[in-house]
Amino acid sequence: MHTITQRPRRSLAASMLLATALAAGITATDVATAAATALPAATRSGSAVGTAVRASWPTVKSGQRGVDVATVQLLLTARGYTLTADGVFGSGTAAKVKAFQKAKHLTADGIVGPGTWAKLVMTVKSGSKGAGVKAAQRQLTDNGYTVTADGVFGSGTAAKVKAFQKAKHLTADGIVDVQTWAALVRGGGAGGGGKLSDAQAASRLKAAGITRSSSGNCTNRYNKKCTSLQSIRARTVDGVIALKKKSGCRIVITGGTEVGHAGGTYSHWNGYKVDVARTSCVTDYIHAHSKKHHKRGDGAWVWRVTSGGKAVIDYADENWANHWDITYY
Q1: Tens digit of pLDDT for each residue in 225-236?
Q2: pLDDT in tens, 147-206
Q3: What average pLDDT does range 4-22 have in this prediction?
């Protein structure tokens, strides 16, 4: 009798929480996460239902580009809906998403939201092979845990998964399950994409011995004379820290996510780029550890680092402004 009386109470608590949250304008994903606390402890910590409730996902749809799009494409391929993982969400990708959604009895709108992610991801672990593993490997690299995206889940991939899980306070078992996938595609940052606040980014950079400067001596993102780190990607911050460690050079950031830079997907505003003061030490390191690739329309020569045939870092030599314009893909 005790068990029978407890279940309705928990169900009522969850329902009341859901109604209250929706009335307050909280998103469905946040409601799902909060509702998990109204479930039995055993459900929250162990069952598939508990895992699905706690996981939260970004929305990926037509017109978007980047590693999350490539992840969708690779996971679709692994599910039998073959696509080229070019990271561009075009009409072909939308059509395959709709076909997958229809097969899984989901709303076939071509938008990859929480419901579609939950059906699309698959558990991969040591010994696994294929497009699903490659998707996990590309996400690991995008989160700063660089690994070759060869589609083979070996000891190196397992070690990087465990390190990522430990950093995100997940069970460090080396198995990419639903929760690990959710942490990977969101990058663990607020609002998805692994983006940091100015204070978070500044703290991490300061701890690594990296400073920043601006002509206006300010950090306001909406003032082009400032150098802001607001909404910079964690991957970009990790990249600058890696540059400091590997080069041994003094690193000064002179441009971040503030207004006044060129637009586009892989832009300063979107958190992919930073400007770093052009010193002989930094220049010598870049020349020694990347390949001269092409000249941009503005005359800047681009030195590129690739992995698996894909660009992972572009160093553009804006010598007229005395800095390197660096893009971390």
Answers
A1: 999 998 898 889
A2: 899 999 999 999 999 999 998 889 999 999 999 999 888 764 333 346 788 888 999 999
A3: 42
Distance CA 294, CA 304 (A): 9
Tokens standing for residue 15: 């329902």
Query: Across the strands, what pairs with 307?
Result: 310
Q: 234-247 and 198-207 are packed helices; what angle lies between their axes, rounded to 10 degrees?
A: 20
| Main-chain dihedrals φ then ψ at residue 25, nearest 5 degrees | 90, 15
Provide the pLDDT for residue 319.
96
d(CA 184, CA 257): 23
> What is the pLDDT, as a whole number, of residue 307?
83
**In degrees to the nearest 10, what's the CA dihedral of 36, 117, 157, 148?**
-150
